[in-house]
Amino acid sequence: MKWKNRNLRELAHMVCGDTEHFRYRSSSYITEFFQDCDLDYVHDGSTRWAWVAEKLEEVLALPHSSPSMPPDAFIRIIRATLDKGDAQNGDPDRSRALAALNAVLAREGWNAFYDEHGVAQLRHIATNSIAQLANPHRPLTPAEAARREQLTAYLERCSEDELIEEVLLPLFRQLGFHRITAAGHKDKSLEYGKDVWMKFTLPTLHVLYFGIQAKRGKLDSAGVGKEGSSNIAEIHNQVNMMLGHEIFDPELNRRVLVDHAFIVAGGEITKQARNWIGNKLDATKRSQIMFMDRDDVLNLFIVTNLPLPKEALPAKKFVDPFDDDLPF
After folding, report:
1. Which fold has domain 142-312?
2. For the chain, does the N or the C end have fewer beta carbons within 10 angstroms?
3. How far is CA 288 from CA 211, 238, 283, in A?
4. Closest residue by Cα to residue 218 from 301, 155, 286
5. pTM
6. Which domain of life does the UniProt lineage start with (predicted)?
7. Closest CA to 216 of 166, 165, 267, 261
8. Which has the closest alpha carbon to 121: 76, 85, 175, 66?
């Protein structure tokens, strides 16, 4: 990720506090700033802003998952720069600092904002995706745990199409996939075992094609699937159909094969089903098929800070202004 020198200089001045509305940092505090961002940089006593600009350029050159996602270290720098604890006189909510920083970020295709917890977030303007330090295995905060419970309740009652449209499509867009196309369930005659197909661009600019076979209920290994569950062998056959069937890529104007497939369950994938598909994939040496159950979907959705579907939010209680029992 390469930034223009002008933008690096302006961001460096903000980190150093040479710009209005930003905390002033001397040499030792600049070192402390980068240490707080988990970067082992020690200021060498040279001109502060020039040294910081050089380090920012190094950070932007670090490996990152996709062109629309900056390195994790850069996300931490933006969050530390906009820390609400560093509010200056005349800017108690840091709105002016945010506006000044966004004037720089916008020239590089980014936008910063504060989320509902007061933490600075970074959004890629072209894709509208939010850059996140997403570790789905970390402990969740109380607020995240509450949102996870709301999403769990939603998955219990949503349809398969709602699972795809309201949960999976936003999730995979946020994770860096693009050209996401849902087949839908109104007309299955042309679906060929896939509910969604999408593309992912590697850092080398090579493109991989992915398909998703989604089921809202539990996946088990029973001979006859119970109500609300599906047989894993049937899903496996549908995924094999997906991998063997071409899709049309309108950006290339040609047909291509799906490289990898996800089996996504809105419910549990039972231990027996996991063992069955694990043995099947190992026997065929097939690394094209991956699977995700409800816990995987829930954790990824929550840590990437995506808004919950409207139907998952608690209903607002109606207050009758003419109720005699009200205290006013």
Report:
1. Restriction Endonuclease (3.40.91)
2. C
3. 10, 14, 13
4. 155
5. 0.61
6. Bacteria
7. 267
8. 76
